[in-house]
Structures are given as structure tokens and as C-alpha cells.
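Predict structure. Input: NtaA/DmoA family FMN-dependent monooxygenase, 455 residues.
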Amino acid sequence: MSSPATGRKQVHLAAHFPGVNNTTVWSDPRSGSQIEFSSFVHLARTAERAKMDFLFLAEGLRLREQGGKIYDLDVVGRPNTLTVLSALAAVTEHLGLAGTISSTFNEPYEVARQFASLDHLSGGRAAWNVVTSWDAFTGENFRRGGYLPAEQRYERARTFLDAAFAVLDAWRGDEVVADPRSGTFLTDPAAGSFAHRDAHFDIAGRSTVWRSPQGRPVVFQAGDSDEGREFAAAKADAIFSRHATYDEGRAFSADVKGRLARYGRRPEDLLVLPAATFALGDTDAEAAEIAHEVRMQQVSGQTAIAFLEHVWNRDLSGHDPDGPLPADDPVPGENTVARGRASVRQFRDPLATARRWRELAEAEGLTSRELVVEVTGRQTFIGSPATVAATIERFVQDGAADGFILVPHLVPGGLDEFADRVVPILQERGVHRTEYEGSTLRDNLGLPPLAPAAG
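Output follows.
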């Protein structure tokens, strides 16, 4: 979406409530509760004050484990996503409310009802991040244990979304539901009815929720595989991306938007929104010092060892994090140390990963902990507010992203400085709104309107 006044692309900004993980610094004295409602309210109101598009909540279906124990950066206490978003609808007015709900361990009818209800409660601000769940460890929490191979997970996700859309589109929105004068209940006996049948689902009935303000929630997708990118090109309104550097961002955006034409879609029909961390200072040099301090807090010696175990696939509790990398090669085969850890999937060739890390550590003289700090990523944006604002604008104008989902390292106050110091500069540059344009999240994201539901 471009500004009519400036002709420049508008920067989309959103806020992510991260939970306790390797992004947050829960040990910082300024860090607050990850589960008290006041923390969610603070972050949401800060995002709305900064005129951001939406607040995003991930969903943790099971606590991660390392060597049979709860991972040191996980926490007992992840409230249900839709419950929190529904509560936030009552304390915000314009902010979109986006939540991750898995297509692997849920049912289309119930998810459709939940998001239609959230869309009604919020006046048209609901968004659904459609994901697949990949591991049998998480599946043990559900009646249908185990997991599906990647190609079946995405096939189920596609048909899950089609089935959910059948429920969401059951009501056109123009039917007469009741006329007390004549006693008429429905003008069309088929109104509100749906049916969907495929290899995964066989559902039929009548939806209990009237067509919501957006018709359907805005659909997000977060997969980075070829299957995930294709799914986003076919079905999603926005895709979350982990490619937050300039060159990687441009390549990713070009790839995923280049797939849209085969589905009859335009580049502006799909927003690319990478997750982004940040470190701000009065000067660029001060920001760099703050960034280093944060990274060292995020990666303790214990955390570094746990991360190395994801690759080496064996107990490294006796390894010195301030010494060199393990001399032995990783243990091949299924990872039996880290369970429920997405990072395990990222290292499909542990031997090659270890070789690459050893070369990097030797070239730069890095200890095991320093190596983990290096490879797990640094803050996306580091600098003074003016530097960060200029960098964000460059990324968006050059097509490296349509905007960013900001992940603060402190909850709940970690977004405040960005809202107070960076956003006003973007507004002065004419690339970020000063007021919300529309009444729904779809309006504020600049997405095309949905076609009316079939009659």
C-alpha cells in the first residue's frame, strides 16, 4: 500500500508477544510476567498507540524438553491464544488480533467458529496464522498422536483452510434470520449451511455464527519450505518470514510474490512481514553496545550447551561453553536430545553444520558460546532511532519486506521505546500512518476486499 501524498510504500508494523524463549531476557529486572493479563494489555496498547497493524501471539502446544527436562528458556504458563485475543478485543479499538492455530491438531468447524466469534467481538480485527505441527512429541498431547509427513501436513492444511472457509462463508450476510411480525425464521432454508468433503474431512451442517465483519479472518502463514511458500501464495494474505536481512529479504519476497500469478493474484495481495528484533541507543555506537549486552544475556553458557546439543544430538553437559566446539562429530539419526524444538529441523545435515561452525570459530577465534551468539542471529535493527527508521524505510521501499513484526526482548515494556522514538520518525517521513485508515484489519493492511460469499 502506497501513500497517495508521498507515493512511497507504507511501512506495516506489528508487535509480537514472544513468551519466554531465546529472544527474551527473562532474567532482566525490568522483565515482567508472561502470563498476567496486564502484560498483554500493556503491549497491545503500546502497539495501538503507535498505530501498528496488529498484535501477534504464537501458540505453544507443548513445553519443549532437553534431555528429558523442561528446556531452560521455556516456561509453564502459555495461555490459550484465542482466549487472550478475545480479552484484548475489549481493551483495544483498532489493533488487529492475530493468533497461531495449528491445522494439524484442530478441526475446521471449531476453528472457524472461534475466529468468526473473535471477528465479531473485535469488530473485524481477527487474523489466523495457519501452521502445521511437525513432531510426534507434540502429537502425544492429542488423541490422534504421532505426526504427518511434510507433504501430508501441507495437504491437510490446504484442505483444512478450505473446510474452514466453507463454514465461514455459510452465511452470505444478507439473509433474513427472523421476522417477528410474520414468524418467518429464514427466507432461504439453505442459508447458513455448509458441506465439505475430501480425503481429510467430511463435514456438513449449518454454521452457528453469523457472517463476521471481515467475512473471514485475515490469513497468515509462516512456513519457509517450498511447500510453505506455495501454500502462502495460494491461500494467505500475509506470510511471516525469518529472512530479515536486506539481501535475503529481497530474494525471499521476490520468490514468494513471483508465485502469485499462477493463482490469479497480484504482488500486493500478499504481504511479506519478517520478524525483527531491535536495539536502540542515543547513538549508533551506544546501540551496538546495548545489542551486545542483550545477546550475551540471551545466550548463557547453559543455553549455548543446549543449543549445541540440537546439532550434536548427544549430552554435552560436561562441555565447557567458554572453550572450543566439541571435537567429536554429531551423532547421526533422529534427534533424541531436544524434543519439541523447531531448531532441530533447521539442521538437516548436522555434519555439514558442525563443519561450517568449526571453520567460522577457527577463523574468528570464537568459543562455543560466542559461536552460538554469532549463528543464532543478532538484533535485526541496531542504531539510533533515526538510523533504525531509515533502515526500515529502505527495506520496504526496495522490496525486501512490506513491514516488520517487532519482537522486543523485554515484556511488557520492551516495545515502548520503539513506539516513542522510531515510529514518530517514520510518521514524519510519511511512510507510517498517523491514524488508522479503516475499521477492519483487512482495511488497515491495505488488502483487497473479499468477494461476497456465494448465494
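The chain has two domains: 12-282+382-444, 300-375.
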